[in-house]
Amino acid sequence: MVSVVDGGCGSEAGHKRRRTGGSSPPTDALTPARQRRSEARHRKQKLISRLSDSGFQEDLGDSPVSSPNQTPTVSPLRVQEPAAGQQLSGGWFLQYGDIGFRVQREREDHFHPCRSLARQPQLTSEARCKLVSWLIPVHRHFRLSFECCCLAVNIMDRFLVSTAVAADCFQLLGVTALLLATKQVEVGSPRISHLLSLCCDAFTKEQLCNLECLILLRLNFRLAAPTLAFFIDYYTNCMEAAQNEAGGGFARRNMDTKRPRRCSDLARKVCELSLADYAFNKYPASLTASCALRLASELLKTEQGLTIQSGEDQWDSFVDEPCVQTALSERSVDQEGHNQNLARECKDNLKMLVSLNQEKLDRMSNM
Amino acid sequence: MDVSKRMSLPMDIRLPPEFLQKLQLESENSPLCKPLSRTSRRASLSDIGFGKLETYVKLGKLGEGTYATVFKGRSKLTENLVALKEIRLEHEEGAPCTAIREVSLLKNLKHANIVTLHDIIHTDRCLTLVFEYLDSDLKQYLDNCGNLMSMNNVKIFMFQLMRGLSYCHKRKILHRDLKPQNLLINDKGELKLADFGLARAKSVPTKTYSNEVVTLWYRPPDVLLGSTEYSTPIDMWGVGCIMFEMATGRPMFPGATVKEELHLIFRLIGTPTEDTWPGISSNDEFRSYLFPQYRPQALINHVPRLDTEGIDLLSALLLYNTRSRMSSEASLRHPYFQTLGDNIHNLADTGSVFSLREVQLQKDPGHRTSVFQPLSK
């Protein structure tokens, strides 16, 4: 079960080293207070890092770690570096953000695979959870974007709405949806043979290509779905813009400009968890994204609340919180017509999902 | 993390046929789910010939795109001319991403200045996209008028180009291969963007499907220097080059190689500096070329027929700094277009600019065959 705690035992030390060596000042320059704070921060980061691989992996059995290319350990709070060409730059949000957001919001209903398992005779939400929990590390293995991962799950779900799939073909559907998602949004796609080898060559190339065609036809080539990743990016840009405005007059305005980014990285992890859980299938992407960001903002605030040592933290929790809330409420849940109750329910469920996985992971690391 | 894993799902087999039958019935009787109702609607369309290859008569080859062959055709249903784009589906890595992207993107685009995708036909080995047919493109148009366009028409074409592009950019869709050949023009003077196939490949391909060389003339310097940033300003540089070409009758930067292309750009716009292009001095590729320090030239000397507002717009499109380069959305409100009137901003997406009485093409001074005289078909 060692493989379960990704980046656990082995890489933890390296992780710690990176943190203290990286963004913090050299250790010997730390005052006791700041040292305490950086330790506390480190604890928090560990906690978040354990969420990173969706926490469902123990379901995947216990085969030995033998991936051909070592999956890079993902530092939880590293600034997400999108692979070249995958994501729209901040410039797009500047020029088109609000109109673009409205367009995607209007389109999202048409791409929402509601109750994708309702008519599946063989597939259960457990099987879907297993599959998505496997696809998440696979997408990371190929260094694909979160956008691509969300799209793959969306393609898979929408196909499931249209077609009954036998349980033993479910994994083939998963990798084929991932391949289609990469063709839609990535610079390059993994080779089919590589994808098949990850399924232990249980399927043939012909089967995969046939299924690829079938998916395209059943979905009528409509692959350009609005994703969780897009909405998180958009809301994050709003939060940054709001923070810049609010902080404009302060001399120390760049005190914690990374705050929205950290919030969005955490929200992305939360969304990743939600992808694998069929209970979240019923919420539109924009709703889940905004709830995840609100939750992430609260979590970060609580974490920070425990570590308040200096005026800095008080200052930024003072300034950030309203920023996040107004940036989100202006653009999302409150005014865009989402049902208030649905939003509350979604956020509560996310909170539960996070705490469930947190406990599970805490227990694992104590073993 | 071990990602290589056959899922431990039941090694169970096919579904019992009775079960599938029942599902089929259920799905037909309850059109709850959109994709299913769509397929059933499609079935009825196919009864009258949509989605069937035999509905279209192939008339002759129009050309080779970057990944497909295009034929002229006629629909037996409507008697209208169509363009048939044939894409081979059997490739080493499954369906080509260019085809997937072109279809999935065009499906979301319904706009008067974007070519309409009428139908998709899927046969065993081939995917055929059926597009509306437009008889000319901007390159032919320029040839036809002896490279001397009326400046009024330049403006109307520019506005339509910006309009189509702004619609795409709002939807996060880039064209990435704008050039006069990809701007189709019909006998009314309506201009439509075509050829949306390009993948998010690192660089735009240098060879076509049939091994023809792809032109570098409309590529922005950031892409020529290897930038992989996927953003809308990429398209806006090419728009500037096309504007210049319409106003002068000759291509702006007709370079044959990347180096020559950059050289032509720098000689006219000036060699970039940290001021005009933040970060350029640390670009290894740029430094390795060792270009001379050219000073920017006044554009008006090269495009004497363009008025002050036009020059202003052109300069804003040809900025090195992608963050400052003018966006298509903003350019629609540029003073250059003011003479087209206010109503043009209130058109529905699918409304043609020529539905407004104040927007009319003029006879091009160099024009030979009378394309735009009222046709008595």
Automatic annotation (TrEMBL), chain A:
Tree of life domain: Eukaryota
UniProt region (Disordered), positions on chain: 1-77
InterPro entries from the UniProt entry: Cyclin (IPR039361), Cyclin-like_dom (IPR013763), Cyclin-like_sf (IPR036915), Cyclin_C-dom (IPR004367), Cyclin_N (IPR006671)
Ranges of Polar residues composition bias in the record: 64-74
UniProt protein name: G2/mitotic-specific cyclin-B2
Alphabetical list of Gene3D superfamilies matching this protein: Cyclin-like
Function: Essential for the control of the cell cycle at the G2/M (mitosis) transition.
Keywords of the record: Cell cycle, Cell division, Cyclin
Pfam families: Cyclin_C, Cyclin_N
Keyword Nucleotide-binding: no
Domain Cyclin-like: 133-217
Originating organism: Pleuronectes platessa (European plaice)
GO biological process: cell division
Subunit text: Interacts with the CDK1 protein kinase to form a serine/threonine kinase holoenzyme complex also known as maturation promoting factor (MPF). The cyclin subunit imparts substrate specificity to the complex.
Keyword Lipid metabolism: no
Annotated TM spans: none
Family per similarity comment: Belongs to the cyclin family. Cyclin AB subfamily.
UniProtKB/TrEMBL annotation, chain B:
Alphabetized CDD domains for the sequence: STKc_PCTAIRE3
Record-listed ATP binding positions: K85
Entry GO MF terms: ATP binding; cyclin-dependent protein serine/threonine kinase activity
InterPro entries per record: CDK, Kinase-like_dom_sf, Prot_kinase_dom, Protein_kinase_ATP_BS, Ser/Thr_kinase_AS
Domain Protein kinase: 56-337
Pfam family, one: Pkinase
Keyword Hydrolase: no
Record's keyword terms, sorted: ATP-binding, Kinase, Nucleotide-binding, Phosphoprotein, Serine/threonine-protein kinase, Transferase
A single Gene Ontology CC term: nucleus
Transmembrane parts of this sequence: none
Catalysed conversion reaction: L-threonyl-[protein] + ATP = O-phospho-L-threonyl-[protein] + ADP + H(+); L-seryl-[protein] + ATP = O-phospho-L-seryl-[protein] + ADP + H(+)
EC number of this enzyme: 2.7.11.22
Family: Belongs to the protein kinase superfamily. CMGC Ser/Thr protein kinase family. CDC2/CDKX subfamily.
Protein's recorded name: cyclin-dependent kinase
UniProt source species: Pleuronectes platessa (European plaice)
Taxonomic lineage: Eukaryota, Metazoa, Chordata, Craniata, Vertebrata
